[in-house]
Amino acid sequence: MTNFRDKGDNMAKDFKLIKPTMEYEKEIQNFREEFIINGGDMDGCLSLRRMENISDWIKQVEDFSSEDTCPKEYVPQTQFIFIREEDNKIIGVIQIRHYLNEFFEKYGGHIGYSVCHSERKKVMQL
User: Fold this and answer.
1) Of 114, 77, 112, which Cα lies nearest the Cα of 92?
2) Position 88 pLDDT exceeds 70
3) What is the pTM of this model?
4) First to last CA, the chain
């Protein structure tokens, strides 16, 4: 876990970057629903948009983290959620691909990410 502090707006807020677990099921579901309501791509989220059951998504995240269980057309990757500790809100997600295949070289790159609509265009000083 990595902690960050935001000193903007004269209020210190703590954030953490962690791997998703079922401990954050409600928060992950809220993040997903905000994207569904507002539209937009969910880059860096694997199949979260399609998966109503968060435990299925957590399983997919785990499967994609290892070369042994990652589908052949993809590459192993590590998934993180970025959480504001004050209210446990997921601000965004980030996915780091361990290496690239031909598709990700052309279209995806090493990093995929999404920031929830309600948290965009805010200044954060780390």
Assistant:
1) 114
2) yes
3) 0.85
4) 16
